[in-house]
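User: Hi! I'm working on a homework problem where we have to compare a predicted structure to a textbook description. Could you give me the structure for the chain below?
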Amino acid sequence: MKWMVHGKRLPGYYPRILCIVLTLLLAALSYYYHKVDLPEKLREQETCLRSTMDLNAMEHATVLMLKEGTRLEKGSAIDEVALAKLEQVERPVLFLPDEYLSGTEQVMGRIVERTISGGEILVPQSIKSQDNRQEGYYRLVSVTLRGNLLGSLVEGKDIDLLAHRDDGTYEILVSKTPLMQVDFDKSRQTEILIPVDDYEQRLIEKVRDTVAFSARLYLDPTQPEAPCVEGPGVEEDYAH
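Assistant: Happy to help. Predicted structure tokens:
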């Protein structure tokens, strides 16, 4: 392109104008990088760094924790007394397990799967659902036991209900049923409430006056239930 004024060429103006434009463009880019882009990236890096080092700046979540100085025993039921030992606290997400419990409604009425000590955060693996006898056609019945397994019978534990006869034999009337209530008296007898179905209740009522009942305690909630072994005496009583 030729720049002309009054028919005369003005040599060198085009390269000069191009250099000015490029200089202004570089100046604008430099200003943007140093005044806008770089400070923004530094702020983002600072926020990211603070979120991993500054506890107050970290992302927090509400979790359910067992109060210091308390304890929940394995196999115990989470009732109102157990709920009083729990509290909701805020903890940095960075230090939390992959899964955790945050509300009391998630644990009410469930069973402690393993012993939990004070200060522990509750996770789904710490508890289990109530036995399926809480649903369907199961009903509560009371049974008087001889002895109390040295005081080991507590609510929430799973037991087998045994019927003992005078000849030394016994039958398993109810297999792996949870204890809903346990009452001890001074006569070394124990009154318990357990859920049973209609057939199991009929067996219990048929032999209630002719046998002595006892409980066999499961050491771990994950143990498989024992098969019911009904001796000839039970079958004959039920047949009549």
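For your comparison, note the following. Residues 205 and 238 are 9 Å apart (CA to CA). Residues 13-53 form the longest helix (41 residues). Good luck with the assignment!
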